[in-house]
Write a structure and sequence with these properties.
It is a single chain. By secondary structure, the chain is of the alpha/beta class. It has 3 domains: about 1-125, PAS domain (Beta-Lactamase, 2-Layer Sandwich); about 140-290, Alpha-Beta Plaits; about 320-555, Alpha-Beta Barrel (TIM Barrel). The protein is about 40% helix and about 25% strand. It has helices at about 10-20, 40-45, 55-65, 70-80, 140-155, 170-175, 175-195, 220-240, 265-280, 290-310, 350-360, 365-385, 400-405, 405-415, 440-450, 465-470, 490-505, 520-530, 545-555; strands spanning about 25-30, 35-40, 50-55, 85-95, 100-110, 115-125, 140, 155-165, 200-205, 210-215, 250-260, 285-290, 320-325, 330-345, 350, 390-395, 425-430, 455-460, 475-480, 510-515, 530-535. The strands form 3 sheets. Strands 13, 14, 15, 16, 17, 18, 19, 20 and 21 form a 9-stranded mixed β-sheet that branches. Strands 3-2-1-6-5-4 form a 6-stranded antiparallel β-sheet, with helices on both faces. Strands 7-9-10-8-11-12 form a 6-stranded mixed β-sheet, sandwiched between helices. Helix 6 packs across helix 7 (about 175-195) and helix 7 crosses helix 8. The chain starts with 7 loop residues before the first helix and ends with a helix. Bound molecules: ligand C2E and calcium ion (CA) (2 copies). Ligand C2E binds near residues 352, 356, 514 and 536. Ligand C2E binds near residues 339, 395, 396, 514 and 515.
């Protein structure tokens, strides 16, 4: 029953409550007193100063498209004259940004105690739904409203957890959209088992759900971790119960909030970053937002942008250095390893250990790798005139091997110069990812077929595949620097290196020892019978001009 002097505050309160369960804007228009109340969110989209106002007809006319005003007024007139029972009109309203959108306005004409009311709802035609029909959950727009309301009402803390289905795209492609919907339902049912308040779970774009959880006094982030575990266990049990006719895992990213500190955008961004981190760290896990990691990540993106810019602008700031490789038996230069350097105006000098992983992650190593091969081949071609059996070592990253047609590139760039293919060794650090994948093995065999040689880099650290040694795919084993430091004093290092040298020689492979810095280390390594030595003792990596000055000039001069 509508009273003569409706209580504005009470009406607003009820409209706001009903608003949560609809996409529409609700209204009560009192034509007798020329007052109106709309759902609160009306001011987000349309240029009303408030959602409850006097002089309502004039204010309404100000947002209605001028061409539609007569039509609207006529309709209202007919309604109050009793010629129409219902108001049902589509016309145009001006939005806050000055453009017009079509709205559908439906309502009932009510005359109560002599007062003429129109009560109904307005919906934007084509507006994104506030509900997800599949899961029955509210969408992100509602989450944003809920969070903003929290910020206004009281200072509180809590967490936002984004839960995503791992490999959802593949699941959808492999089994169809129906299975995708089913997976999302299993996920939301699992969440609902532990959280049954409607305004706590939301459907986010793609395959994600959000859980919004303010803390009570004794809560902390442990609550989020436990919740994730329980949801995951619940899903595992459902999958088991269904006898594995469907299988999936979930990852979650959680960010804590403090309503006095975080805007909704910040909170969502932090949760998204943590979910991204959970996926990168192997999926099937929950990551908690860490601002230090976030700053690192943003820094990394900045460096990657700069790398991309430098590469696209003619490899600006990149230079290839060369470190000599000597034959310890006769102290003669036998070749060099090409090592990339980057000195950019924004970040200064940066070591390859830092930027190569960033190039690999973004596949930028592919274009830069071509430039490296070309620059190394150019230098090799100059130096074989002085040392006819000079050998150039070029590092290859697994990204070049797996994601580009490396053989085609190598043949093209090296083919531009006259030095034959057997003047090149390609160094590869093995990773578990490329462990005997048939496609990778085929690429290695193509190198050998074309008369190139392959070296296993950093042998002895991390991952070493003895199968590749046994099958003679690699010709040179490069023993990592960490075994050589203090080899003259560390008996275990000495034993390890002596074992590697013996094993390689028995198999008919050559051994190059890296990181020899002192006379004592050199005499030890010589004694062990290494075929090649690379280290500061013979020379540091230097630019072309310095390499020629330090290592070739004395040869030419005798
Ligand atoms: P790596 O292939 O093992 O290269 C040998 C590294 O050991 C070089 O570091 C070299 O400067 C250093 N080194 C050599 N002898 C000594 C020594 O006696 N003492 C000490 N303390 N260090 C020595 P750098 O140039 O910083 O390169 C680091 C890594 O970056 C390389 O390790 C390689 O994995 C990667 N890298 C460098 N250039 C390239 C490139 O052109 N392509 C690819 N894919 N990776 C590269
Ligand atoms: Ca190397
Ligand atoms: Ca190495």
């Amino acid at each position: 029953m509508i009273r003569r002097d409706f209580d504005l505050e009470e009406m607003k309160y009820f409209l706001n409550l009903v608003e949560l369960s609809t996409d529409d804007y609700l209204y009560i228009f009192d034509f007798t007193n020329d007052r109106a109340i709309y759902s609160k969110s009306i001011t987000d989209v349309f240029p009303f100063a408030s959602n409850a106002f006097e002089n309502a007809t004039a204010q309404l006319k100000a947002v209605v498209h001028p061409d539609d005003i007569d039509m609207l007024m006529e309709d209202l007139q007919e309604g109050f004259n009793g010629r129409r029972k219902e108001h049902n009109l589509e016309y145009r309203w001006k939005t806050v940004d000055g453009t017009y959108v079509a709205i559908s306005c439906r309502g009932q004409y009510v005359i109560s105690q002599g007062i003429k009311y129109l009560i109904g709802r307005i919906s934007e035609i084509g507006k994104q739904s506030r509900f997800d029909n599949n899961t029955g959950l509210y969408r992100e727009v509602v989450l944003e409203n809920v969070y903003n309301e929290y910020c206004k009402v009281r200072h509180s803390r809590g967490f936002l957890m984004l839960v995503g289905v791992d490999n959802f795209k593949e699941l959808n492609e492999k089994y169809g959209a129906k299975t995708g919907d089913e997976v999302l339902n299993i996920l939301t049912d699992a969440i609902r088992r532990y959280i049954d308040t409607p305004l706590r779970i939301f459907r986010m774009p793609g395959d994600e759900c959000a859980i919004f959880m303010p803390y009570t006094i004794e809560d902390n982030i442990e609550q989020a971790k436990n919740l994730y575990k329980r949801i995951r266990n619940r899903i595992d049990r459902v999958i088991e119960h269904r006898k594995y006719d469907i299988f999936f895992t979930i990852s979650a990213g959680t960010a804590e909030f403090d309503t006095e500190r975080d805007s909704f955008n910040d909170l969502l961004k932090n949760a998204k970053f943590s979910l991204h981190a959970a996926k990168l760290n192997g999926k099937n896990r929950c990551e908690i937002f860490d601002s230090v990691n976030y700053i690192e990540y943003i820094k990394k993106l900045g460096i990657q942008d700069e790398l991309r810019r430098c590469i696209s602008e003619g490899f600006e700031g990149f230079e290839l250095y060369f470190q000599p490789i000597y034959n310890p038996q006769n102290d003669r230069l036998s070749g060099a390893e090409a090592l990339i350097r980057w000195n950019c105006s924004k970040y200064g000098f940066m070591g390859p250990d830092k930027f190569i992983p960033l190039l690999e992650e973004s596949a930028l190593i592919i274009p830069l790798g071509r430039w490296i091969i070309d620059s190394a081949a150019k230098a090799c071609n100059r130096w074989i005139t002085n040392i006819p059996d000079f050998v150039m070592h070029i590092n290859l990253s697994f990204v070049q091997i797996v994601k580009s047609n490396i053989i085609k590139d190598v043949l093209e760039y090296i083919g531009r110069y006259s030095a034959a293919n057997n003047h090149y060794v390609f160094e590869i650090t093995e990773t578990i990812e490329m462990d005997r994948i048939p496609a990778v093995e085929r690429v290695f065999k193509e190198f050998i077929k074309n008369d190139f040689r392959l070296a296993i880099d950093d042998f002895g650290t991390g991952y070493s595949n003895y199968g590749y040694m046994r099958d003679k795919i690699f010709d040179i084993v490069k023993v990592d620097r960490s075994f050589i430091t203090d080899i003259d004093k560390q008996r275990n290092n000495y034993l390890m290196v002596s074992f590697i040298v013996k094993m390689a020689h028995e198999m008919g492979l050559h051994v190059c020892i890296e990181g020899v810095e002192t006379k004592e280390e050199l005499s030890c390594v010589r004694e062990l019978g290494a075929d090649y030595i690379q280290g500061y003792y013979y020379g540091k990596p230097v630019c072309v001009a310095d390499f020629e000055e330090q290592h070739l000039k004395k040869l030419i001069l005798g």
